[in-house]
Amino acid sequence: MTALDLRLETDRFGPFTFRLGLDPGALALPLARVEDAWKMFSASPLAQVANQLQREVLVQSVFGTNTIEGATLTEEETRRALDADPGKVQAEQEVRVRNIKAAYDLAVRSAETDGWRLDVDYIRAVHAEICRDLPHPDNRPGLFRDNPKERPTVVGDQDHGGIYRPPQYRRDIDRLMDGLVDWHQGLMDAGISPLLRAPLVHLYFELIHPFWDGNGRVGRVLEATLLRQAGYRYAPFALAKFYQEQIHRYFALFNHCRKAAGRDEPFPNQDFVTFTLEGLRVVIERLHGRVNELVTVLLFDAVLRRELETGKINPRQYAIVRHLMDSGRALSPAELRLEPWYQTMYAHLTEKTRQRDLRGLLDTGFLGPGADGRLRPGFVGNRRAG
């Protein structure tokens, strides 16, 4: 035990210890890598693309956290559900999307409120948003479990490190949730980095598993809230996509850390926190790259518009390049000719005009053929057109 550990006795679950459980020396390099990535990202021209970046992160994050819990919506279907009128959303999976968005909004408002602190009421409020109007048989938004003996809660599976029975008795859950927020406040008062506090809260929340349903989604929102409060934008929610991509590792680490603590290893939580730091570095670097791509597209579009205004390209040529930019699809010349909008645009023009327009775009570099012969906008990398 250390001064930052908290051991609680429960009525039926036995002793439960919140432990820092980390090796500071081994974490120095992962922490430095996250901070270095964050400094580079923060120095990029975020203001120019903030709205689009925020939208993309929201879609990917909701898709990721929802998919972890078994949802089958694609990323594009998730995007459409987020764009739908909330009052008209009825399908269960679309309701789940709407609810996660509402929980994220609550997280941002809370994290940006002066003096906000993690407490049990906030955790209940997040759960209430996540589980609102869902038809789970035990759906009780904001209420902790109190399992009858004949209906135990069991989490985990053999493929991810085994089965675990979290606390079942309501009074034990209440005591442990109060302990979790008190312990977190102690870590905060002691100056423990939010990059360590946030995954530790995530880990112990999942081990308590206080609600009948929605615990994974709540745990990831709690982690994101603490990171957002510390000034990290975009990345806290983008972590959900990393967890989804690394889903087997993610699930297995909860059992791995629990078993390490049971063996009284000195640093039982090290691997989960290292995993989270790895995820943060990865998503921050991705975000940095995406900002550079978006800014490149903005600059390219500015040049394209200037060339249109000065008459160096005509409206048809502008429309071709803009369509490829907006659709994100690369097309061969033959495929381009089959596009309805393209056929309409050239319906009363000659083949010579078609060829002259396309040759002009290729000669000026506004369009560039890839190795596969497909046409892509001519901005650097052509990654968006894929």
UniProtKB/TrEMBL annotation:
Residues 146-161 have a biased composition (Basic and acidic residues). It comes from the Bacteria. GO terms for molecular function: ATP binding. Residues 118-278 form the Fido domain. Keywords: ATP-binding, Nucleotide-binding. InterPro entries: Fido, Fido-like_dom_sf, Fido_containing. ATP binds at residues 213-220. The keyword Transferase does not apply. The active site is at residue 209. The keyword Nucleotide-binding applies. The record marks 69 as: Important for autoinhibition of adenylyltransferase activity. Residues 139-161 are annotated as: Disordered. It holds the Pfam family Fic. SUPFAM superfamilies: Fic-like. This is Fic family protein. It comes from Arenimonas fontis.
